[in-house]
Write a structure and sequence with these properties.
The protein is an alpha/beta fold and 254 residues long. Helices cover 37% and strands 15% of the residues. The chain has helices spanning 19-30, 42-47, 69-83, 106-133, 163-183, 218-229, and strands spanning 10-14, 34-39, 58-63, 88-91, 139-144, 188-195, 239-242. The mean pLDDT is 91.
Amino acid sequence: MSSTLWKSKVAVVTGASVGIGAEVAVRLANAGITVVGLARRAELIDDLNKKVHGNGGQIHSYRCDMANEENIGKAFAWIGEHFGGISILVCNAGVLKANFIVESSNADLKQLYDINAYATTICLREGLKLMRNGKVDKGHIMVLNSILGHRIPDVAVPLFSVYPATKHAITGLCQTLRQEIHFLKLNIKLTSINPGMVDTDFLNVYSHTVADLPKLNAVDVADAIMYALETPNHVQVEDITLQAMRRYDTAGNL
């Protein structure tokens, strides 16, 4: 982040222990922002401070299981008690299971909806409350959605299960929440980040199936988030869709 628009503000990042969440947490802290990271493996979040280099930013951890709504409530209550209002919320936590729907267990289907849709909804509600109750002069909510929340590409990866359905729910949720924010007359933006495949541990469930497909990396997604955060106060970027593309040399070879 090149500007000081958010310096000394407080940000909350869910799923901050690895991958996109970890990259975003470090980028925000290096911009002078106080970051609270939520994840089950809080010790990994604490380790991220080794990548924070001055500028007043710091990363704090809170152990939180996104499959447990009581955990989420306690986490946001703790944030409110220790930091007051927040200015940035990055809803990144999610889960992916590779299977056919017809072969999926009830437990797996429920977990996908519980973490990707229900837990995200609770985080958005509680985060927005902290922004409103803290009377922040400006706020920004980032939701890690997916291309699969808008369309299902016809590719040779059929094992999406109900993951796209959970992300379509997030697309509708973002649109509803923007209307609520406008109705409540709050200076809070909401951006849906819609990446294609990202080369993180998240894709391990597919093993070799996606090995030859082009992929983004966590830095690409973090760049998109930082771009949206740096837009002027009167500009709201509602959706950012990014997809990796194949690169060819002058002879047309990969």
